[in-house]
Amino acid sequence: MSAAGHAIEARNLRKTYRGSRGQAPMEALKGVDLYVPQGSIFGLLGPNGAGKSTFINILADLVVKTSGDVSIWGFDIDKNPRQARAAIGVVPQELNIDPFFTPAEAMELQAGLYGVPKAERRTLEILDAVGLADKADAYARTLSGGMRRRLLVAKALVHQPPVLVLDEPTAGVDIELRKQLWDYVRELNARGTTIVLTTHYLEEAEELCDRIAIINHGEVAAVEAKETLLHRIEQKQLVIRPAGEVPLPDLGGLKVEARADGCFAVSYSPEDIMAGEIITRIQNAGIEICDITTQQSDLEDVFLQLTYHKNDEYSGPVVGEKPVPSTRS
Ligand code: ADP
After folding, report:
1. Which residues line ligand 1 (CB under 6 A)?
2. Which of 16, 20, 27, 54 to mutate to test the pocket of ligand 1 (most atoms within 8 A of CB)?
3. Going from the N-terminus, what domains does the chain have, and what CATH number goes with each?
4. Closest atom of ligand 1 to CA, residue 215
5. What pLDDT, on a 0 to 100 scale, did the predictor assign at position 307?
6. What is the whole-number distance in angstroms between the Cα of residue 26 and the centre of ligand 1?
7. In the chain, which stretches have pLDDT less than 70?
8. How far apart are CA 238 and CA 229, in angstroms?
9. Measuring CA to CA, how many Å separate 272 from each of 257, 268, 277?
10. pLDDT per residue as tens digits for the range 243-286
C-alpha cells in the first residue's frame, strides 16, 4: 500500500501516439500529475479528446506510456507490473458481452484470466452484490443494458481489486438506471473500494465524486475537492427581455451581454449577489422587464472557464480567475 495513502499516483505522465501514415504524432498526455487518495471516489472530467481514456488505459495496461511514473496501490507499473495489475479492475465503456456465456460463466472465465484459484472465486457472491444473482445462469443476450453494465462491473471485481476504474459508467443509460448504478458505486466505495470514474456529466461528478480532476488537451486544468470546484463554477445567468429596445445597463460591475434575440444576459455568482438585487438594479436603471429566465452554467461552461486561455498562449492553470462563461450559440 502506498505510504502516502494514494491508490494511484501518476507523475509527469506522458503519452504520444505515433502518427500513422504521415500523420503528425499526437501528444495525448503532456506531463500529467495526479494523485488519487485511497478510499475516494475520484472523477476524471474533460471534453472529448482530453486524454481521459489514454490515462485509464495506461492504468489498465492497455496503452503503453511514453514516459513518467505510475503506481497503483503502491506498485510501480514498470517495476511490479503483476501486482499493479492485480490491484485494479477496469470497467470498459462499451457494453460488449459475449452472448454465448451466462453471467456465471463469464465470471469464471474472467477469474481464470486473472489467475484466481477456483477455491478463491466468489462468482455468486459478486453477482449477488451487483443484483444479478437470479440471472447467473441466464443467457447473456437476455440481459438488459443495465444488467450488462452491472455484469461488466462484476467482471472487473473478480480478483477483488482495491481500485476500480469506471469509464463513462452511465453513458447512454436512462435516469433510473443511472441512479441505481450510482447507489452501487457508493456501496462499493463504502465497503472500501477506491473508485476512479470518467464522465461527461457534471451531475454525475457532483453526485458521486469527492475529488474531481478536469483534464483538457492532455493537461490537468484543475484538481480539487468537489465542493471547492463546484463552488468556483457556480455561475448563473439571468436572461432579461426588456420592454422595447434599450442600451445595455451598467449593473455595478456585473457582466452584461447583449443577445441576438434582443434580450441581455447578466452573469453572476449566487454566492456574491442575489437575483432579486440584480432585478432591482435593472429596474433602477429605468428598464422595464418583460420576462426573466435563469441559466445555470453547465459542464461546457466549466471547461471554458477552466481552460479559458487554452487557445491563446496557455501558461498554466487558470483556476482562481473567473472569466465569464461565453454565451454559446
Ligand atoms: P478522451 O478519453 O478524453 O476522449 P482520449 O484519451 O481518447 O481522450 O484521446 C486523447 C487524444 O489522443 C485524442 O486527440 C485522440 O484522438 C488521440 N488518440 C487516442 N487514441 C489514439 C490512438 N490509438 N492513436 C492515435 N491517437 C490517439
Report:
1. 17, 26, 28, 46, 48-54
2. 54
3. 6-87+161-230 (3.40.50.300), 236-296 (3.30.70.100)
4. 3
5. 61
6. 8
7. 1-4, 172, 231-234, 296-329
8. 22
9. 19, 8, 11
10. 988 889 999 889 899 988 889 999 888 778 888 999 999 999 99
Identify the pLDDT of residue 144: 85
Minimum CA distance residue for ligand 1 atom 14? 49
* DSSP assignment letter at 91: E
Interval 6-42: pLDDT, tens: 999 999 999 999 977 788 899 999 999 999 999 999 9
Q: How far away, in angstroms, is 37 Cα from ligand 1 center? A: 26
Ligand 1 centroid distance, CA of 30 (Å)? 12
pLDDT at site 48: 82
Pairing of strands 67-72, 6-17: antiparallel
What does the alpha-carbon distance between residue 177 and residue 269 come to, in Å, rounded to a whole number?
Answer: 33
Residue bearing the CA closest to ligand 1, atom 5: 51
Residue of 16, 45, 53 to mutate, ligand 1, most atoms within 8 A of C-beta: 53
Integer CA distances (angstroms), 218 to 156, 226, 323, in order: 26, 21, 21
